[in-house]
Amino acid sequence: MADPILVFEKPIFELEKKIRELEDLNTSESIDVTNEIVLLGDKLQETMRTIYQSLTPWQRVQLARHPKRPYTLDYVSLIFTDFLEFHGDRRFRDDSAIVGGFAKFEGQRVMIIGTQKGRDMKENVYRNFGWPSPEGYRKALRLMQLADKANVPIITFVDTPGAYPGIASEERHIAEAIAVNLRDMFALKVPVISIIIGEGGSGGAIGIGVGNRILIMENSYYSVITPEGCAAILWKDRSFAEVAAKALCLTASDLVRLKVADSIIPEPLGGAHRDYLFTAEAMRKVLKKNLNELSKMSVPKLLEQRYRKFREISEFAEAVTPAEEPELKTPVPEAEEAPSSTGASSDE
After folding, report:
1. Is the pLDDT of residue 320 over 70?
2. Do 155 and 213 meet the contact criterion of CB atoms below 8 Å apart?
3. Does residue 202 carry a pLDDT above 50?
4. So what's the architecture of 62-313 in CATH?
5. What is the residue-wise DSSP string for 178-208?
6. What percent of the chain has pLDDT over 90?
7. Cα 62 versus chain centre, distance
8. What span, in angstroms and rounded, lies between the C-alpha atoms of 300 and 315?
9. Of the candidates 8, 2, 15, which has an alpha carbon nearest to the alpha carbon of residue 52?
10. Domain boundaries, the chain
11. Whole-number Å distance between alpha carbons of 41 and 273
């Protein structure tokens, strides 16, 4: 599948196309265009830095949805070993939009749970386009409770626009499944690390996202609603998605500033899909650091830290803006009676 070209990436792809044409000319003809290739390569790097270092929130959302971006199973194969996948929620069926199982990270046993999208139409239908159903969240909770019994840390990978909103999902109580996950994840006695690797949309994301640490990839987003959904509600027009993305403060830097996320995992210039190995190594370092810190904490401290983290997310304070401050008027003293021009007293 050819790489999709995002609107803001067109100058980059045009330069890359020219470089490929010159490279073909350089090998097929007796013309030396090496200098031109070097100059275009320098211009390409400069253009990429200019574009990717000044991305708008909406452009980052587009990168987070890139179909070539690494998904949960890609990170599993690059970072972990001995992955043993589990299936089914023991109530209804297996949900392929959520994958999970035991694995090893740096020789340590961990439980991996994550949402999974597809690369093509056939796989996307199989994965339900990354929209988990109630049984997906119940499977995730079953695996979390299994990890809790085995005293194994839990690592969750979040990449979903939201929970599946279809009628069948409602009939099987999607809201109840997510609510139970939120309640029971706060009671887990093992370290929980949640990583936003792409889209982090609404309850579909937080249904497996209650962790002691919330890590987010540089070009991922985490929000109570997708920009299109927000635009459809507020402006009755999904074309306002770009405006909504800015208002939602959903980028990695915004979330760290607001203390929703704990740290940002860097990506290569242009996004995680441009260099899987660089991205995986960056994630490995951040994951190892946080896992080592949490492993040293006692169970009561883990529980308290996780609870306090999410309680503080909802804290806010109202400040009086200058325009709202009441105007203070200085009292004017009563004027004294002026003395007469003759200097005589009033009694005279």
Report:
1. no
2. no
3. yes
4. Alpha-Beta Complex (3.90)
5. HHHHHHHHTT--S-EEEEEEEEEEHHHHHTT
6. 76
7. 12
8. 23
9. 8
10. 7-54, 62-313
11. 20
Beta strands, E only, the chain: 81-85, 98-105, 108-115, 154-160, 192-201, 213-217, 221-223, 263-265
Q: What is the pLDDT of residues 245-269, one digit of tens each?
A: 999 999 999 999 999 999 999 999 9
Q: What is the pLDDT of the chain when averaged over all its residues? A: 89
Prediction pTM value = 0.86
Interatomic CA distance for residues 76 and 302, integer angstroms: 25
Number of H helices, E strands in the chain: 14, 8
pLDDT at 331: 55
Extract the tokens encoding 326.
């009441």
Where residue 52 falls (left for φ over 0; alpha for ψ -120 to 50; beta otherwise) is alpha
Burial zone of 258 (CB within 10 Å; 0-12 exposed, 13-18 middle, 19+ buried): exposed
Q: Are 169 and 137 a contacting pair, CB within 8 Å?
A: no
Please, which residues have CB within 8 angstroms of residue 300's CB and are 6 or more apart in sequence? none
pLDDT reading at 112 higher than 80? yes
Amino acid at 344: A
